[in-house]
Amino acid sequence: LPGGRELIGIVAGIISESRPGSFRNSGRDHLGIRIQLASPLARGLFRQAIIQSGPCQYQFPSLADSQEVGRSTAERLGCTGTDKAVVSCLRRIPVTTMLANMVPGAGGPGNAPSVGGGVLPLNIRESVAFGRSNQVPVLQGSNRDEALWHVASNYADPAAALTASGYSEALRRSFGSRASAVEAAYPPDAFASPLAALARVLTDSSINYRIGACNTLLAHRLLAPSRKLYAYELADPRAPFPFAPYEFATGGIRGSGHTSELAYLWDSPAQLTPGQQRLSRTMIVYWTNFAANGDPNGPGLPEWRPFEPGVERVQILSPDQVRESRTFEQEHKCDFWSRMGLNTLYSFEYRADYKAVNIR
Question: Using N-to-C axis directions, what is the helix angle for 30-38 and 5-17, rounded to 10°?
């Protein structure tokens, strides 16, 4: 919404529902928490933040661009004249018609807030990188096989199984002139199937909406110099998706896909094994401790040390073992993806030869 009205509503919710200085965002808007880190209006209203489902990745449109989109949408719907006349006209249009004519924000999700003015002066990444964000402790992470969520919905039909040649074509559509370098780094015969190779490429590269391993690492590196940062990776090789709408067929591939962490933190229809139930209890206590005091550690828990500049600790969450890793960058080939021009402060949104999401 132009001017950030949605963000103002989120901030107002914190003020009205929380004790002063406490963290208690009970909404389901994962994007809202990240925006609060960047908004001066939210300063002092929360003590810590938990970020899942992709870190500070979106580039939102400017206020001027959003206003222009609003004007053109109103004209397309037949609403012209004075501001008062336009508003009166828009209020008479059915919601379904309005939604059918909405234009997603450039570089971000539909109905995105706008950047500019006092509500959201900078995009989230720039706010963090330039030291302008609200400097509270953060617990943040990703899932080892994030892109299973994306490939599953595109390759659910067994009759359309991805072949080696289809894998090469998918890389060409997504990475353009750099596809050969990507395939050399991720040869399909090194994986259980071409689909498994594609899931690993999309997870590590973070090219789908910046959700994935190496963009998460970039976010860790941006946040860590200015606050306590507790980084995690869910690494259950047989993690379930949390709800029926996400039970996509994955060509027999299992792993910790996008949204899988929700099955360990909230009630869901997913049936957890005894080992997964133990991991769930550990994660719930970690998250609860952090929400209470900004530190996930507590009696009886494996120690979780913060991610720091030069000491990049990531807590690996697996049913077999909860442990610390310092090889996250190597495991996900993040140096390679940086050389490809991805997962930098300004990256693929502005490159004509990268096409996010188009993996069919």
Answer: 90
Identify the three-state secondary structure at position 2: coil
- Please, which residues bridge with residue 140 across strands? 51, 231
Q: How far is Cα of residue 22 from the mean position of the Cα atoms in its chain?
A: 24
Position 251, amino acid? G
Question: What percentage of the chain exceeds 70 in pLDDT?
Answer: 79
Residue among 32, 198, 203 nearest 109 (CA): 32
What residue type is assigned to position 114 of the chain? S
HSE at residue 294, side-chain half, CA atoms within 13 A, is 12
226-251 pLDDT, tens per residue?
A: 999 999 999 999 998 887 655 566 66
Amino acid code (one letter) for 43: R
Report pLDDT for 99. 82
- Contact residues for 90 (Cβ-Cβ < 8 A; gap 6+): 74, 77, 79, 98
Tokens representing 40?
Answer: 């001066």
Residue 205 CB neighbour total at 10 angstroms: 29
Count of C-beta atoms within a 10 Å radius of residue 149 = 22
Given the structure tokens 């989230």, which residue do they identify? 124
